[in-house]
Every structure is written in C-alpha cells, then in structure tokens.
C-alpha cells in the first residue's frame, strides 16, 4: 500500500513550508521516524521524520518549492517487495495531486503531535494568502479587494511576497495610491544581474539570504522602527556564583546528564526580577499595555542557520533544575534542527548571552512584540575596589560581568530599567545556591 506524506502544520500560525532538501531518494528504504527531508517555514528550519516504515516510492514536491500545509509531497510504499522505478521522472510540484491507482492511505507527519487540517483559505474565503502576504498587505494598507486583483505566480496561482511587492512598486508612481510603509521592515529583492556587474566573481561571492535570515532581517528592521530603544548597563560581581559552579559542576553533570552552564542562573534571576517588575514582561498594542500572567522566557541560541530564540513556556512555574533541563533540551534541539515553530512563538522576554563568544558589552535589539531584552557579557577577572564593613578599601581580583538591558522607552523609563537591572544584580550576587542542589 502506498501512503501519502503531506506537508505538516508545524505551528498554529504556519500555513506553508518550503522543502529545503530531500535526505532520502526514490527507492531508499525508510524506517519509521527516520528523517526523510528538511523543510523551512517563516519561523525555523526543521528535519521531518517519516510517519511510517517502507520505501520512498515517489517525490511530488521538488526541493526549493513552497506549498501550503496539507499538500501531498511524497508517497511511501509500505510493501518493501513492491517494484519501485527510481529512474522515473519526479513529478512537478502541484497543489492538486493525481489519484494513485493503487490503494492509498494518508498519514500525517506529526513533529509536534498536531493534526494537519485542510488547507486554509484567504480572508475572502476563496483564495489562499500566506501569513507573510497578509502581513505585508496590512503594513502597506492593502485590502482583500486589492489582493484579489494581483496575479499570483505561486503554486496554483497563489500570491507570493514578490507578487505583492511588484504590485506595490507598480503603484508607487501613482500619487496617493499606496500609503507610506509603516516601519520599512520589508527586505527588498536585489537584482542579481546588476549585482554581478558591480561585484564580479573574480573578487566577490554573492549569496542569497536563506528563509530564516530574511525573516530575521525583517524582524530586526521592524523592531528598530517600532520601539525607541534605550540601553542601560550594570556590572555584577559573579565571584561567588563562579566558585559555586566550579565546585558543583561535576556532580551536577553526573546527576542530570548535562553540563551546568551559567544560563540557568541567569534565567532563574530574570524570572524572579520579572515577577517584581511585571511591566518588563508586557507588550504594547496601540495605546494599551498588555500584562502577561505567564513568563515565556526566550533564550537566544546560535544555530547552523543563524540566531534562533526558542522559548521556555511558563518559565515562572519551573524551579532551577526545571529551567536547566529546559534550556539544555531547547539548545540541543535548536542546533540539531529538531525545534518546532510553536517553540519560538509567544515569548514575553528574551535573554541574549553573547558573552559565550567573549563579547563584554553589547546592545541587543528587542525581540518584538516584547518591550525589553537582556544582554549578558563575558565573565572576566578584574581588579576591583573592595570595601569592608568598617569602610576600609582594598584591591581584590573578582569575576565581573556586564549586563545590558535594552528596553522600549514608550513604557519603560530609565528609573524602571535601572531598578530592574539592580534587582538582577542583587539576585545574582546573592544567589540562593540551595535551589541548585
């Protein structure tokens, strides 16, 4: 029996996916849960396992093609004795898959245990528009009626980002026909031919941004255009914490099965401070402040495809060990392309630990729609003036770290930002180590 493999729904807001690479080829034997392809969404790249054991009988959607969720992308033959013609041409990507004369069963790929619904329609009920297209339309003031007149170059006439941008470019010469962009967050497509003339291959190499890089660039541009960024810096004496970690890291790793890094200490301190300053855990909608009852803590992780920020959902409900386990799990899965799109959405505050690369001080950009982000610098030994209880000064060698808080000055002023940093400093310098043991 042949089984349909369909493009999975990787998250609540994910409506389409791009096939980056078929790891398995037609005729290859496949074990259940063995990785067969890599896909990219507008959130993250992911490796996709086979829903069933068998042989890859047919590939429907080619590499680099983008199709809506629920689209049949391949067939797996469960009868390993069946003849598979691996030399037959691969069918072109199509939203409408021809009925196979053999018995066919549909099995949903479930990387996050969500079922795959039918392909959603556009807001007019008759045409599909991706979340990206709808976002651009909203930012540019385009209505559904405007989208309806755009000719689509995508699969089955689907309107793509390029189609919308071309439409806007064509209308830009007409006065007052297109509202001014809000935030200027769109990354404009560069003409490859023109670039090759300016940057010849003898001295340059031109590389196309991948999907995740483009989304990150647009996200950063939108954040700078949305929030008036202010940065405050404070220094923290990490000597006690560094010494504690040095004494206990070996026993911790034997007990838990992973290394004890500094990140769980930072996460625990941030959760405590956010409880004291809930406005730092909020977001802004127009002239309203949205306070969040839960803390979904984002941890920036350097992945093979760039910086990704997975979130620890309800971090305020976890103790130190729970935070450490969650951080280790998310970091490993991010680096191995096992992260799910739902896990990088819904964050309320973000930590960026650029200190792991030796950076001392940085000014991170706020991860919208959040209102603040914490930058953590490298821990360095420095000579420090120490004052004893009698007011006598001396010079000592201490492990010092700089914290940077970038915050949205629309609702967080310097006083709150400074108080939040001071609270973090106190927690880290007076850490309750009994919570770790």
Give an overview in words.
- The protein has 437 residues and is of the alpha+beta class.
- The protein is 26% helix and 24% strand.
- It has nine helices and 20 strands.
- The protein has helices at 131-140, 144-148, 161-171, 192-198, 211-226, 239-256, 263-276, 320-335, 414-429, and strands at 2-6, 16-22, 29-30, 35-40, 45-49, 54-59, 66-68, 72-77, 104-107, 229-237, 283-285, 288-290, 297-299, 301-303, 306-308, 311-312, 349-352, 372-376, 380-387, 393-408.
- Strands 10, 13, 16, 17, 18, 19 and 20 form a seven-stranded mixed beta sheet that branches. Strands 3-6-8-1-9 form a five-stranded mixed beta sheet, with no helix packed on it. Strands 5-4-2-7 form a four-stranded antiparallel beta sheet, with no helix packed on it.
- Helix 7 crosses helix 8 and helix 7 packs across helix 9 (414-429).
- Mean pLDDT is 82; it is low at 87-104, 110-126 and 172-183.
Question: Can I get a quick summary?
Answer:
This protein has 437 residues and is of the alpha+beta class. The protein has helices spanning 131-140, 144-148, 161-171, 192-198, 211-226, 239-256, 263-276, 320-335, 414-429, and strands at residues 2-6, 16-22, 29-30, 35-40, 45-49, 54-59, 66-68, 72-77, 104-107, 229-237, 283-285, 288-290, 297-299, 301-303, 306-308, 311-312, 349-352, 372-376, 380-387, 393-408.
